[in-house]
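Before relying on records like the one below, remember that each one covers exactly one chain. Contacts with other chains, cofactors or solvent are not represented anywhere in the record.
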Amino acid sequence: MKEPNNSKGGIHRRDLIKSAAAVGVGLASGSFAIPQVVGQGNVGKNLIQIENAKPGTRDWQLTNTRQLPGKINKILDNGRCPWIEGYCSANSVRAGETLRVMVSTNPVSDFKLEIFRTGYYNGDGARLMKRFDSLKGKTQEDPLVGENYVRECNWDPSVEFEIPSDWLSGVYLGKLTAEKENIQSYVIFIVRDDRPCDLLFQCSDNTWSAYNRWPADFSIYTSHEGKSTTGFPSGSVSFDRPYGLFTHPVNKHKTSGGSGEFLPWEFPLSFWLEQHGYDVSYISNVDTHVDPKGLLRTKGFISVGHDEYWSVEMYDNVLKARDEGVNLAFLSANAVFCVVPMLPSKKGVPNRTIRREGWFNPLPPGAKLPPNMIHQEGFKPVFDRDAAQLMGARTPLLAFNGSGDWTCTKPEHWLFEGTGMKAGESIEGLVGWEMHAEPAMDLPGMEIVAKGPTMAGDKKGEYTATVYNGPKGNIVFNAATIWWANGLSSPPGHKTPVRHGVAQQGVDERVQKITHNLFQRMAKA
């Protein structure tokens, strides 16, 4: 369906001009001085500041959700919402490109689609950009099991529209509401641009798809006949399906259905960056894969939250960006761990399917991969790149899962300036639910800035947060925890995560100040 005449537009040029004079950026209260915005913020106001001065709303949140009853296996609740569910034709789109949104309603119901740009917006968390009313719904078929167990939808578009030229880069949520029972869910997409920026926020959408079990236990972690959950290659998963069922704590967030892992693990960072007026632009994992030159437009590249699944091209492109002087911040864990090729859909659309084909973690000398991890004759898993040589540390193969306190080991480091932290002082519960360890001590200027134990039941592990020097005065920081962003802010509707009996403690001024120190150093490098 084409865009209806009554749909509301987004940002207008006159609004940009009008807002430039009135914009004000909210600052977190507390004892730490908030640094001045760098980059474009030194001359007038940057686009993020102008955008966030516009009126926000909390209507973006889901208020009436429903999931199928029962469990999909012995452990996981069924998280699917067939009453209304959908997906987008692309992970990211530029202004002027057409986005198609595929929606299914069962039972059949008319529905509306409201599109919001997420950000700070005076604490509301999003701004309404466009709405489509009284759309005709229909029940669209679940896909058959395809080659290598992929479940790839071929649904008809319910609405399609051109991205307006004045929509700022960001993460956009489409809120779907079925009129029959007012049940709601999301679709999600990224608007990207090509402008120079201080910070480049990479969403971890490969990992969202890897853990997505929709329609009924079909994730990369699903055990199929002749394949184990850890085998190479794994079953294939497609972006052409709704985000519904997950294999980990995201499944507990009943009001985030359809948004992948963005709301629990990534939005707190985006919310905080835009609150403080940082000049940030947004991309997907697919953009990192296909656009190496695009990475060079930023001073700092950020990996966020749970960023487990990377292609070899992503690794090589980010490594090249580092070597060209781009700063890297891995505010993530379990990152750059599993190797995936980016494969086309059945219709030939590129980069719509992934499967696991190895690790960014070389096997120790003399070690052999267990026979049960290879399930295709003649298949050779990829182990020829080391995540530690990019991030500073890597996901350990054994004790990779655990939670604990984030403990300062080097209080004199510039990272801790203004925090008052002492050696051995901890930020409680910040590490989880997975972490990085095994630092690459041969990297230039390598420093371990935080280190400590983790627990996962009765399993003990250890994490290491690191900083090392790039070749052109740039730096690489590895926070070693999925939960780093949760220490920065708690947007509307956000829930503090709990895992392995450890609760992340929420917003902490020390995490905020460390992150300010990091981004200010990146902007000057």
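Residues 2-42 have pLDDT under 50 and may be disordered.
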